[in-house]
Each structure stands twice: as structure tokens, then as C-alpha cells.
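My current task is to audit a protein record that another person submitted. I need someone to confirm that the C-alpha cell line plausibly describes how this chain folds. Take the sequence as given and treat only the C-alpha cells as open to question. This is what I was given:
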Amino acid sequence: MKYSLILPALFLLIFSNFGMAQTVEKPRENTVTVEETVQMVEEPDFEVPIAVVEVPPIYPGCTASREESIKCLFEKINEKFNKEFVFPSSLEKKEQRIFVSFNVSHEGVVKIAVLRSPHKDIDEQVKKVFSDFPQLFPGIQRNKPVVVTFLVPFTLNKGL
């Protein structure tokens, strides 16, 4: 009598697990494995202002601390601009203020992003100065080269 209750319970337990194991192991038609959905997502290039970039772009010959590298970079930019910029003779003798926003790419190439000046002849001269800029060492953010943005005002004085 003892065994008469245990045997049917054991029989039910064995066959009920057998049926479940079959349904679990059956692959469903509309399932997607994890391997098919995982994709490598690259972080897009993003622009970082010079004020917050971890390692600023470095002008050739400028090596020092972060602050000194930025100071040296701006000195070299001003030196190059003052040496190569030719004030257009067609313009009147007065002080002109221009704003140049430029980027140093993740490859170290300098490109003008936005140029604001009072005359198209000034625009052409500024573009000429920036067109043959030497390649810089790129800025670094999170151990990766990034595009670094600058906004530099220049005051032009023609013979004043």
C-alpha cells in the first residue's frame, strides 16, 4: 500500500519533466540570438572646445604643461597671422575686428569653421593665412584624438 501511492507519483514526475524538457529544447522560429543583435558602435567624432579638452592640440615646437601649450599655441597663431596677413589696400584706414572660429581635426589639420569680418577681401586674406597652417598634434579626449574648436578674435590695424 505504501508503494501504490509512490509509484504513480514517481511515474507522473518522470513523464511530466520529460515533456517539459522537450518544449524547452525546441527552438522557436521567431527567436533571435544575442550574437545576431550585437553590433560594434563607434563613437562619432565630436567637437571639444579648447577650454575643456583634456590634452590640447600642440603646435610643432610647443611642449610643456597644458596651460603653457595653449599659451604657446595662441602665440604661434598670432605670430603667423601678424606675419602673413596683408591688409587689403582697397579698404579704408580704420581698425577692423574679425572673429575666426576654426577646428583642429583629429588628424591635426586646421580648418576654418566660421569667419566673421566686415569685408570679403579680409575674408580672402584670412583664408590664405589659415590655408597653409602646419599640421598640429591633435587634441586628446578620453585617450582618443578629437576635433578641437577655437574662437579667436583679431584686431586689424591698417597703418594706425
The first strand starts at residue 47 and ends at 49. Helices lie at 2-25, 34-37, 66-84, 120-131. The longest helix spans residues 2-25. DSSP finds four helices and five strands in the chain.
